[in-house]
Specification:
Distance between the termini: 19 Å
Strand content: 25-35%
Number of strands: 3
Number of helices: 3
Helix content: 25-40%
Radius of gyration: 13 Å
Amino acid sequence: TRAPEVAARGHVPPGQPCAFRYVANVAEGLREAQVTAIFAPYGDLESIRLVPKKRAAFINFASIGRAAGSK
């Protein structure tokens, strides 16, 4: 588990496990259902946030272990 001060700032030190993934260079027009299909095999997803203007996605997994397997 992350230390409270790390969680409060929303920053995880390099090398530390976390339950979220940032995905860059997301294809234009990609839909949430498509992102779900790509990442769901790695574990239960809590949420997906697409940021089309930045061509990015934020994927939150239900567990840290599952997120680590999605690299």
